[in-house]
């Protein structure tokens, strides 16, 4: 099912998705923009030729072996010679689970096959680069491409494929944005109605809901090859009164790095995190996961974050300020629920 040559498809496999630039607010000019939820999954392009099928991440890496159920669904369609843009998601108990997606990135094919049957993935589609039959759509405006993807999914009649919601209402887009950040979506994407599809270019706007939380500094990491702090390890107290590691922040200014390093080194010692700690078995583990310094849980910082998954900040956070007025025990998970 997986092709080895771009010649089997109507567009080269090296084609990359149109991307989005980060914006602080949603653009709101009337009759100019279409808004869509920004899904919390794996962005990909789905290619199908006469027989061959391929799924490619926006990095260009093949994803097909990790999602055999989607490969089969695309292969079984009557439609051929198309390229569509979408997001791979996995739903568990009615909610999109990024952890379940990460579990698919496994070296054992038997494990992947088992997971594909237990927690099948779905492809949420929102754009068309090439319509079935080989009609190239790149130069057409968004409404034409949107109509093509809606028609494509309607004819497919396959539960593994669905169309992402879209609206031209700024009020609806703002409601989507307010509800993002924990669960299925992590923001809103705004696309210009008269814009053509621009592979690899940042020709859309994406806005994420930004929230803040007060967190305990339970440890830190040094900059590589230096004895200066590179990042703060953040914690929140759970219901059992234990300090769980929830993420990190590395937005430390060079002018204050030396002072912060001395402040942290003066508090070095103890276990730091008494609950979940960095370096434990999880999808966040890296080669450097164990290279951290524990400190006494006495310092509190306020950080800005955009998405929470499995009681952790998905991405790095932004350090806003030190909260000398805040008691560490006040820093609980209630802030991010």
Mean pLDDT: 91
The CATH homologous superfamily of the largest domain is named DNA ligase/mRNA capping enzyme
Biggest beta sheet summary: 7 strands, mixed
How many domains in all? 2
| CATH class category label of the largest domain | Alpha Beta
Rg on CA atoms, Å: 22 Å
Give the structural class.
alpha+beta
Low confidence ranges:
280-289
N-to-C SSE string, H for helix and E for strand: EEEEHEEHHEEHEHEEEEEHEEEEE
Q: Kindly state the number of beta strands.
A: 19
Distance between the termini: 43 Å
Q: What is the helix fraction of residues, given as a range?
A: 10-25%
CATH topology of the largest domain: D-amino Acid Aminotransferase, Chain A, domain 1
What does this protein look like?
The protein is α+β, with helices and mostly antiparallel strands and 337 residues long. The protein folds into two domains: 202 residues, D-amino Acid Aminotransferase, Chain A, domain 1 (2-Layer Sandwich), CATH 3.30.470; 126 residues, OB fold (Dihydrolipoamide Acetyltransferase, E2P), CATH 2.40.50. The chain is 18% helix and 33% strand. The strands form four sheets. Strands 3, 4, 5, 6, 7, 8 and 9 form a seven-stranded mixed beta sheet that branches. Strand 17 and strand 18 form a beta hairpin. The longest helix has 15 residues.
């Amino acid at each position: 099912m997986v092709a080895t040559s771009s010649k089997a498809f109507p567009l080269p496999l090296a084609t990359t998705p149109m991307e989005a630039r980060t914006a602080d607010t949603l653009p709101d000019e009337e009759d100019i923009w279409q808004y869509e939820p920004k899904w919390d999954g794996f962005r990909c392009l789905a290619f199908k030729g006469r027989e061959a099928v391929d799924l490619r991440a926006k990095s260009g890496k093949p994803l097909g072996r990790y999602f055999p159920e989607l490969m089969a669904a695309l292969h079984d369609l009557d439609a051929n010679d198309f390229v569509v843009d979408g997001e791979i998601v996995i739903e568990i108990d009615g909610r999109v689970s990024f952890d379940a997606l990460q579990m698919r990135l496994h070296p054992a094919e038997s494990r992947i096959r088992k997971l594909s049957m237990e927690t099948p993935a779905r492809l949420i589609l929102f754009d068309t680069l090439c319509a079935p039959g080989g009609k190239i759509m790149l130069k057409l405006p968004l409404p034409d491409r949107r109509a093509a993807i809606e028609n494509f999914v309607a004819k497919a009649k396959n539960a593994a494929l669905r169309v992402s919601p879209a609206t031209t209402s700024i009020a609806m887009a703002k409601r989507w944005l307010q509800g993002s950040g924990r669960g299925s979506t992590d923001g809103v994407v705004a696309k210009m109605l008269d814009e053509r599809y621009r592979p690899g270019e940042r020709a859309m706007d994406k806005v994420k809901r930004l929230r803040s939380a007060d967190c305990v500094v339970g440890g830190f990491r040094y900059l590589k090859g230096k004895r200066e702090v590179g990042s703060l390890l953040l914690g929140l107290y759970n219901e059992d009164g234990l300090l769980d590691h929830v993420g990190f922040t590395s937005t430390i200014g060079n002018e204050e790095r030396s002072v912060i390093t001395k402040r942290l080194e003066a508090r070095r010692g103890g276990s730091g995190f008494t609950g979940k700690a960095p370096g434990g078995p999880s999808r966040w583990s890296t080669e450097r996961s164990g290279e951290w310094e524990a400190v006494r849980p006495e310092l509190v910082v306020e950080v800005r974050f955009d998405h929470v998954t499995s009681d952790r900040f998905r991405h790095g956070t932004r350090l806003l300020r030190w909260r000398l007025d805040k008691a560490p025990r006040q820093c609980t998970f209630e802030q991010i629920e």
